[in-house]
């Protein structure tokens, strides 16, 4: 059996991000604001190639861009 997120071409982490966003958006206003604050990511990453560090990117923004690109390709 193949998981639906895997057959859709998503990683597990991206699947969790999409599910969390859907849950946050379904909450009432007061709870949604609190949940959205918890959902903000301040993590950064950089891709290393040939022993050299690439551009440092915000993980939340990179995830949003990847989700948008994935949605456009479907």
Automatic annotation (TrEMBL):
<dbReference type="GO" id="GO:0005743">
    <property type="term" value="C:mitochondrial inner membrane"/>
</dbReference>
<dbReference type="InterPro" id="IPR006721">
    <property type="entry name" value="ATP_synth_F1_esu_mt"/>
</dbReference>
<protein>
    <recommendedName>
        <fullName>Mitochondrial ATP synthase epsilon chain domain-containing protein</fullName>
    </recommendedName>
</protein>
<dbReference type="GO" id="GO:0045259">
    <property type="term" value="C:proton-transporting ATP synthase complex"/>
</dbReference>
<dbReference type="GO" id="GO:0046933">
    <property type="term" value="F:proton-transporting ATP synthase activity, rotational mechanism"/>
</dbReference>
<dbReference type="InterPro" id="IPR036742">
    <property type="entry name" value="ATP_synth_F1_esu_sf_mt"/>
</dbReference>
<dbReference type="Pfam" id="PF04627">
    <property type="entry name" value="ATP-synt_Eps"/>
</dbReference>
<comment type="similarity">
    <text>Belongs to the eukaryotic ATPase epsilon family.</text>
</comment>
<dbReference type="GO" id="GO:0042776">
    <property type="term" value="P:proton motive force-driven mitochondrial ATP synthesis"/>
</dbReference>
């Amino acid at each position: 059996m193949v998981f639906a997120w895997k057959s859709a071409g998503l990683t597990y982490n991206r699947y969790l991000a999409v599910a969390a966003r859907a849950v946050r958006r379904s909450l009432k206003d007061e709870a949604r604001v609190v949940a959205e604050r918890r959902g903000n990511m301040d993590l950064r990453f950089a891709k290393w190639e040939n022993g050299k560090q690439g551009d440092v990117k915000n993980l939340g923004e990179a995830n949003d861009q990847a989700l948008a690109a994935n949605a456009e390709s479907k």
